Amino acid sequence: MALTQPLKEYAYNNIKEKILSCEYYLNMILSEDTLCTDLNISRTPVRDALSRLSQDNLVIIVPKKGIFVQGITLNEMKNIYDVRIIMEPQIILNYGMNADMATLRKFHEEFRQFDVDAASPIMFTKLDSDFHRFIFAMAQNTYFNQLYTNISNQNFRISVISGCELGKRRHDSMDEHIQIIESITKQDLESAAKLMESHITKARQCKLELLLSSNSFSDKLSLN
After folding, report:
1. Spatial distance between the Cα atoms of 133 and 212, rounded to a whole number of angstroms
2. Which of 96, 139, 194, 205 could form a disulfide bond with 92, CB atoms 3.0-4.6 angstroms apart?
């Protein structure tokens, strides 16, 4: 096995990717032995990776019981969207004038060309996540960036779980992203902020409705 990164980074990135993509699904029990076999590496880098993933709130390590993929509760899902609805419009209003226009144009083109129907939930979610990370980064504030990292992992998994069932909402989401970008580009920041608030509100409502109506979704999240 030829690696271009340290084994502990390889283990961390690989396990994290499988958790975010829900290949390692919510509340799944992870075995160190199985992870070592799958990655073809020793226990030390796997244990280091699991420790870091515990700090990321992606796994729970329970002494003498095992290692579990962190679950997501309905309340946590609501809290994530509460943070986003408050933060992202305000970041646009206060820091939109600092937006990198070249990057915005690149996102605009990606959203225009994105084939929503052909794309997997993971591809859709990654583009969406990259754009909202860009919004947080406009503030050039380390604490804002850390806040987005804290909520984005869980938000990513929620989106992957629901993504294959969102239908028309995925098309609407692409259009909303484009409208937000065009308003920021014109420096109509008040309109962009309102569009962002509406965009996040609609996404939350869609996923909550899906959670409450779809067995395939609700089985994966705890209704607490």
Report:
1. 28
2. 96
Collapse the DSSP code of 166 into the 3-class scheme (helix H, G, I; strand E, B; otherwise coil) and give the result: coil
pLDDT at residue 221, rounded to an integer: 59
Average pLDDT estimate for 28-46? 94
Q: How far apart (Å, rounded) are the C-alpha atoms in residues 53 and 207? A: 25
15, with CB counted inside 10 A (0-12, 13-18, 19+), is buried
Other beta carbons within 10 Å of 152: 19
Q: What angle do CA 166, 213, 59 make, to 5 degrees?
A: 75
Q: SS3 for 29?
A: strand
Residues 67-85: tens digit of each pLDDT: 999 988 888 888 999 999 9
Q: Which long-range contacts (CB under 8 A, 24 or more apart) does 176-181 make?
A: 176/202, 177/107, 177/111, 177/128, 177/131, 178/108, 178/111, 178/112, 180/92, 181/104, 181/107, 181/108, 181/111
Average pLDDT estimate for 58-71? 92
**Among residues of the chain, what percentage have pLDDT more than 70?**
91
Confidence of residue 197 (pLDDT cuts 50, 70, 90): very high
**DSSP collapsed to 3 states, 81-149:** HHHHHHHHHHHHHHHHHHCCHHHHHHHHHHHHHCCCCCCCHHHHHHHHHHHHHHHHHCCCCHHHHHHHH
Angle between helices 32-39 and 43-55 (to 10 degrees): 110
Give Rg (Cα) of the chain. Answer: 19
